[in-house]
Amino acid sequence: MDISILTEVTDEVVEAFARLIPQLSSSAVIPTRAELQEIADNDTLLIARDPTQGGKIVGTLTLVTFRIPTGVRSWIEDVVVDSAERGKGIGEALTVAALKHAAQLGAKTVDLTSRPSREAANRLYQRVGFELRETNSYRYKLS
C-alpha cells in the first residue's frame, strides 16, 4: 500500500472522493474539486493507493493540525477505506502515517472520534495506541 500526502487535486481524486464519501456518510455532500484543494492546501489529506490495482485510490484520511495556547494539536477526521478493500490494513497504514506526520508537525496529541458501531475501526485505533477518553463530546448544529 502506498500512502502519500495529497498536494494537487486531479480528476482522479475528485472521482475517488465521490466514490468514497458515500461509504463514510450517507448524508454527506460530496466535496467539490475546489473544496478538496482547499483542504489539501490548509490541512493534510492522506491518500492510500493500491499498487496491485494500478495505483487506484482505495482510502483517505484528513489530518487537521492547529496551534492553541497549550500547544500544537492534531485531529484525525473522515477516515474511509473502500468497502471492497477493508480488512487489508489500509486504515491502519493511513492512521500510522497520520500519526508520524502529526509528530513531524510538532503535535503533542492526536485526537479522533469513532462511533461505537464501527467496531473494526475502534479496534484498529486501540491497536495502534489510541486510548478511549472519559469525556463528553458535544456538538452544536449551526444549520
The whole-angstrom Rg is 15 Å
- Rounded average pLDDT: 96
Low-confidence stretches: none
Termini gap? 39 Å
Structural class: alpha+beta
Residue share in helices?
A: 25-40%
Spatial strand sequence of the major β-sheet: 1-2-3-4-5
The secondary-structure element order is: EHHEEEHEH
Total beta strand runs: 5
The largest pleated sheet is described as: 5 strands, mixed
- Count of helical stretches: 4
- β-strand amount: 25-35%
Describe the structure.
- This protein has 143 residues and is an alpha+beta fold.
- Helices cover 34% and strands 27% of the residues.
- It contains four helices and five strands, in the order E-H-H-E-E-E-H-E-H.
- A five-stranded mixed sheet has the order 1-2-3-4-5, with helices on both faces.
- Strand 4, helix 3 and strand 5 (109-111) form a beta-alpha-beta unit.
- The protein starts with a strand and ends in a 16-residue tail after the last helix.
Label this structure with key terms.
single chain, 143 residues, five-stranded mixed β-sheet
Write the layout of secondary structure elements.
Elements: E1 2-5, H1 11-24, H2 33-42, E2 44-50, E3 56-68, E4 71-81, H3 90-104, E5 109-111, H4 119-127
Parallel strand pairs: 4-5
Antiparallel strand pairs: 1-2, 2-3, 3-4
In short:
Helix content is 34%, strand content 27%.
